[in-house]
Amino acid sequence: FSAVFAACIVSIAVCYFFGTLQYMLVQKCELQTALIACVYRFILFDIIKALCASLMGLQIKNALKSAGLM
């Protein structure tokens, strides 16, 4: 579980990095302005979604193993 959750968090960070960079270039704004517009208001929900996806993925994996499909 922890490895999958960590991978989700790293993926989110990469998306935030490139999205914020693109926003700064297109809008010609400073980092703090871009972070406010692109990161701060979404980060909590993205972490919650990563947690849910990691937990559901583990349950699905275990169900597939139990059914002999994996």
Cα distance, first to last residue?
18 Å
Biggest beta sheet summary: none
Mean pLDDT: 96
Q: How large a portion of the residues is in β-strands, by DSSP E?
A: under 5%
- Write down the secondary-structure element order: HHH
User: What is the count of DSSP helices, taking H or I runs of 4+ residues?
Assistant: 3
Structural class: mainly alpha
Residue windows where pLDDT falls under 50 for at least 5 positions? none
Helix share bin: over 70%
Looking at the structure, what is the overall shape?
Answer: elongated
The radius of gyration is 17 Å
Number of strands: 0
Structure description:
The chain is mainly alpha-helical. 86% of the residues lie in helices and 0% in strands. The longest helix is centred in the first third of the chain and has 26 residues, at 2-27.
